[in-house]
Write a structure and sequence with these properties.
It is built from 6 helices and 13 strands. It binds fe (ii) ion (2 copies). The site of one fe (ii) ion has 7 residues, from loops. Pfam families: Metallophos (PF00149). It comes from Roseibium alexandrii (strain DSM 17067 / NCIMB 14079 / DFL-11) (Labrenzia alexandrii). Belongs to the cyclic nucleotide phosphodiesterase class-III family.
Length: 278
């Protein structure tokens, strides 16, 4: 059994500053942490698929340390294009996996309940695109061969195309090479991604890719050919990946904020409510 919360793209800024003028990403990230800590049952771990910071600024990592230390469960993070691998390794030292290093890439494995996590690094310094690189792909191939437990692979840049053109233009450069490595391995349950700031599910190399929305602002859903890069404030959300022997991995999307309800389906039929006899 394993229950894993998947959050992404916090885009933290130095305290008091907004992201892209109007997105209060620091406050929104704190709201997400509060929501995760309030979950019942409590997730075994949180996976954070990159863009933890907006500009890889030491002040942003300092805030990240403070906010993420409040989580009631371990957090496994990877760099996005807005972070830096070396910066994250240094500034987030002490968090699990931060000493992972394959040819400069911050990658590692972890165990969460009966699921194995393989955390990958797609950061290219100073570039918005992503790349795994041959040494890390070879390392991934070895890790997939040496253990056949149910496996989740986390990487910031989604390897599948979304149809949102300005985001697909800054995708994963070596997606084809990744497909060759992961294709034969049937124990891969999910690819966990970020970067697109939208909930997206797609098939890639015969696997299910789940791309979580941001805890902050979202990218506008625009499937036209030359849509401009725009963001909005659709509801921040996260995924819960629930792994059981009976059902395999089932993914639920859940919202950070509360909405009206819950209301009992059968309230008019004399059904007793929890606590009625108290
Ligand atoms: Fe992002
Ligand atoms: Fe990104």
């Amino acid at each position: 059994m394993a229950l894993i919360a998947h959050i992404t793209d916090l885009h933290l800024r130095p305290r008091g500053l907004a992201c892209y003028r109007v997105s209060d990403t620091n406050m929104l990230a704190e709201r997400a942490i509060l929501a995760l800590n309030g979950l019942t049952p409590r997730p075994d771990a949180v996976v954070l698929t990159g863009d933890l910071t907006d500009k890889s600024d030491p002040r942003e990592y300092a805030l990240a340390r403070q906010i993420l230390s409040r989580l009631a469960m371990p957090v496994f993070m990877i760099p996005g294009n807005h972070d830096g691998s070396a910066d994250m390794r240094r500034e987030m030292s002490g968090f699990p996996g931060m000493d992972g290093d394959v040819d400069g890439k911050l990658c590692y494995t972890a165990e969460i309940g009966d699921v194995r996590l393989i955390a990958l690094d797609t950061n290219i310094p100073g570039k918005p695109n992503g790349e795994l690189g041959t040494p890390q792909l070879n390392w991934l191939s070895d890790r997939l061969s040496d253990d056949n437990r149910p496996t989740l692979i986390a990487l910031h840049h989604p390897p599948a195309l979304s149809g949102i053109q300005h985001m697909d233009a800054i995708g994963l450069n070596d997606a084809n090479a990744l497909a060759e490595v992961i294709g034969p391995h049937k124990h891969i349950q999910r690819l966990l991604c970020g970067h697109l700031h939208r909930p997206i599910i797609a098939e890639f190399a015969g696997k299910i890719m789940t791309l979580a929305p941001s805890t902050g602002h979202q990218v506008v859903l625009d499937l036209t050919e030359d849509g401009p890069p725009m963001f909005n404030f659709e509801p921040p959300a996260y995924f819960l990946h629930h792994h059981t022997l009976q059902a395999g991995t089932v993914t639920h999307m859940a919202y950070v904020e509360a909405y009206p309800g819950p209301h009992h389906f059968f309230a008019d039929e004399g059904v007793s409510w929890p606590g009625d006899d108290a």
